[in-house]
Design a protein that fits this description.
By secondary structure, this protein is an alpha/beta fold. The chain is built from three helices and 40 strands. The protein has a twelve-stranded mixed β-sheet. A ten-stranded parallel β-sheet has the order 9-12-15-18-21-26-29-32-35-38, with no helix packed on it. It is flat and about 80 Å long.
Length: 342
């Protein structure tokens, strides 16, 4: 697909400076720009590249004034970074919207219901009594079990596995390797130190506008539902255990693990490699710094760090002492030695 600077400016409500008919067909970083690419400049550290970039069109802030001649056509906007993000969204959507139809070979049960503009990639499996909304895109090698319901505008990348009874809302995106609805980790110990499996008969409910990164797993509930609320964003390789609930617009970075039956509030930000114990409650607007271990419930607005995690400001002050411990021990030993001599 090719677009002119004039067409892009129309979408972004920007002003063209240069050739309005300059065409682009790909996107690039400003330092890696090539003929036919669209790029942007927002960070002052990269200003020097605008004088050397080979990109055909560059999005800039309205207040940018070149100090030397430039060859790239400019599109002036209020916020270059935000405008380029909008272009990226448009570009990705255009690519996915071009995918339609059912490839072969696939297996689809006779009673599957689906809306218009379905794309079903080859070697995918759709079980019994499945309902798919409009504009659902399922890339090759995906599995959808029995009695699953998926809303409109779903984007499911290759290799996703959706177990039975799962309910998914509108405008969701699951990346490769996501597994939704596997059994929760439930085993009952016996007197002889063996374990009996506890059947996991619940499901997973994922609401609207949820994005889940590659390799992330969300377990079905033992009973009831594991629930991911509207607008949640999950990074790659996250483990969410049975009966967890995550509140609206919470974001969680990679390699975080959340144990069973924990409830996390709205608008939380959780860093990478965080571990959260089971059966606790995390409030709204909570901040958990990377590599923290959370073992007890947290109130609204708290920010914590460390393992076990405690108040972020206290952690920062304590860390100064942590770093100085070898020096302090040496000083203490020296004082002790001098005291003994006296």
């Amino acid at each position: 697909m090719k677009f002119t600077a004039e067409q892009i400016a129309g979408v972004l409500e920007g002003e063209v400076v240069g050739n309005p008919l300059a065409e682009v067909f790909t996107l690039s970083k400003i330092e890696e720009g090539v003929d036919g690419s669209l790029t942007f400049l927002s960070n002052p550290k990269y200003v020097s590249y605008i004088y050397t970039t080979l990109a055909s069109v560059t999005i800039v802030n309205k207040d940018f004034v070149p100090e030397s001649p430039i060859s790239t056509t400019l599109i002036r906007v209020e916020d270059a970074y935000g405008a380029f993000a909008k272009v990226l969204t448009f570009y990705a959507q255009a690519k996915n919207d071009s995918k339609k139809g059912i490839e072969q070979p696939v297996f689809m049960s006779d009673d599957v219901k689906y809306g218009e503009d379905l794309y079903l990639g080859s070697f995918s499996y759709i079980g019994k009594n499945v309902v798919l909304g409009k504009n659902v895109k399922i890339y090759p090698n995906c599995y959808i079990g029995d009695n699953v319901t998926i809303g409109d505008n779903m984007l499911m990348h290759s290799g996703v596995r959706i177990y039975s009874e799962t309910v998914i809302g509108d405008d969701c995106c699951f990346h490769s390797g996501v597994i939704i609805g596997a059994d929760g980790f439930g085993f009952a110990p016996n007197a002889d130190n063996s374990y009996d499996k506890i059947p996991q008969i619940g499901n997973v409910i994922i609401e609207n506008k949820v994005e889940i990164g590659a390799g992330t797993t969300i377990d079905r509930a033992t009973m009831g539902s594991t629930i991911i609320r509207n607008g949640v964003k999950l990074d790659n390789q996250i483990q969410i255990a049975h009966n967890v609930e995550i509140g609206e617009n919470t974001v969680i970075a990679a390699q975080t693990g959340i144990a069973g039956s924990t409830k996390i509030g709205q608008h939380c930000i959780i860093g990478g490699q965080v571990g959260i114990s089971g059966h606790i409650v995390i409030g709204n607007n909570v901040r958990i710094q990377a590599q923290s271990g959370v073992t007890k419930s947290m109130k609204d607005e708290e920010t914590v760090q460390g393992s076990p995690a405690f108040n972020y400001n206290d952690y920062s002050k304590s860390f100064v002492h942590f770093k100085n411990l070898p020096k302090m021990v040496s000083q203490f030993n020296e004082l002790l030695k001098n005291n003994i001599k006296e």
